[in-house]
Write the structure tokens for this entry.
Amino acid sequence: MMRRATLALATAALVLQGCAAAAIPVVAGGLVGRKTVSDRNARKARKAEAARIRSLPAAPMPAPMLPGVPPAMQYLYASGEAVALDLQAYMGLANYLVGISADLRIGHDVDSVVLAPGATLEQPKFLPCAGKPPAIVFDIDETAIHNLGFEGDAARRGEAYDAQRWADWERTGTRQVAVVPGLTEVIRVARLAKIAVVFNSNRLAENADATAAMLDGVGLGPVVHGDTLWLQGDAGSTDSRKDGRRWAIAAKYCVVAMSGDQLGDFSDLFNAPGATPAARREAAAGLHTTLMWGHGWFMLPNPVYGTGLRGGMDDVFPPATRWTPTPTPTPNSTPIAAPIAGAPAPVAKEK
Amino acid sequence: MMRRATLALATAALVLQGCAAAAIPVVAGGLVGRKTVSDRNARKARKAEAARIRSLPAAPMPAPMLPGVPPAMQYLYASGEAVALDLQAYMGLANYLVGISADLRIGHDVDSVVLAPGATLEQPKFLPCAGKPPAIVFDIDETAIHNLGFEGDAARRGEAYDAQRWADWERTGTRQVAVVPGLTEVIRVARLAKIAVVFNSNRLAENADATAAMLDGVGLGPVVHGDTLWLQGDAGSTDSRKDGRRWAIAAKYCVVAMSGDQLGDFSDLFNAPGATPAARREAAAGLHTTLMWGHGWFMLPNPVYGTGLRGGMDDVFPPATRWTPTPTPTPNSTPIAAPIAGAPAPVAKEK
């Protein structure tokens, strides 16, 4: 069990000992420390989060309920299955960062996972790192935190997305959020390993202070706008495309990992104009892209909103996969008029 | 980059050379083989799957469309984001199996990931392996394959789940399915590493032949009912609980990994009677459970159906996270009657 024990143990050791160098020596330590240390750590994170939620002001009575919670919200915000997906992604990321910190400590090269300008998904070319300090780049919404306050309000209204209400949420919804399970440990590992934690979000730069306060409030800060917090409007960005900001971040940092809930959190190439759902799936499963998932690029689940929620019947269910249930024979129908004596009884039509 | 290169390379080597023993020597091989070999392999898998879909009979024209495809179906079956989650889980599982096969080859103990009777999630105890042949246990629906034919029919009808139609689907829907991205490679790695591939599904035992044919048809077979295929009705099971079948499988095999889209695919303990959404989330993020995700237990996304789709407003959005948008001031209202000359103009009420 050495290989598997090693990473979990090294992660735990990093977290416990607060020293990236620990990643190497403790490898020899065997399995003993693994569960206990990592447990203590997980317990701490959960207790802190639970305490924070409890500390929130008492909420007014909920508004009268509309039809109910959309299934995608039940899944993402309330299912244990989604918690497992979150932890699977973030435990993998924590172990990945242990490997990165080990490479850094022993002087091995580490590479950037940010595609360079002019690169394609078929011919990927990554930006050089050239001695820059290491960083990990996170999206914020439904990657670092769950926007429970905003989505709960939307669910109660039963209305479509409201951009103005979202802008209000960016400014005022700084506390009604929950950290995505597992992230607190990843951030701890990153910071102890001297890997900078950077956020690249499509929240607006004009709301940077509120967003920074929100991240601080849930223990993901501190962040500095323009250094470890990048928002829509920064680096000349005028829309939701993130490559420009990624390149600005990569000009200063060696981006060793990225985490998001949308393909656009990894490269704008996935969202080429007119890209069909099939094209986006093909791109995500491309020859090189396939090797990135869980290996530099870390995806979090979000069926609630985003660029993936597209497609008509034939996009989602290719005609070649069309299935028609077996017809069930209809029961003999009673004739309107009583049958004439001796006439044959009506027979159910064969279908 | 050694550590990270090693696993991907070893996986690729296993796949290429068809020999579990390859896992060890090739580690020294460096990065060269990594992308090329793994690429070739991924390309093969995708080509085979594409060819299979093309080979399906031409489908009749789709029925007139109802309101549209539910977002959760768009996400799971048509988004590149879900493809990334699938590949992230299954590339991780493939690398995990390389570690297992390495442990087996060098004579290290490997442990079962099946909880023993009487164990709890807080006090986990796993079944002994004691020299049994290694196996990996997969759920089938939305874990091994996507039920495009059935779900597409359901989406067109816009009706709720129909158990009779599902039973018909088990018997007749043997071709209108798609393999979950990444699984074909995992199965190849497992079989080359001499790790048995076992399926534990809640499909009915009486439809075992059709289910086996379906798995064969998409290249996931062969399976033998009662040995590598376990269904509802086997091992005395009378409902969707799977522990009994897991223990029957574990009596013959050392179950080194499990994969599913529902918490019940890993332990029935997650579905204790009356378990609230909050309790299931807490259980999934428990001290020991946390360490299993991506490390013996591998979760696949499924927001379309299942035990996770539960909860009212206050379950999904805890009252402590309640947020109320900032009221927008109402514009000055024009008075019904023209104001009397000299009377103060009406002023918008301050809120």
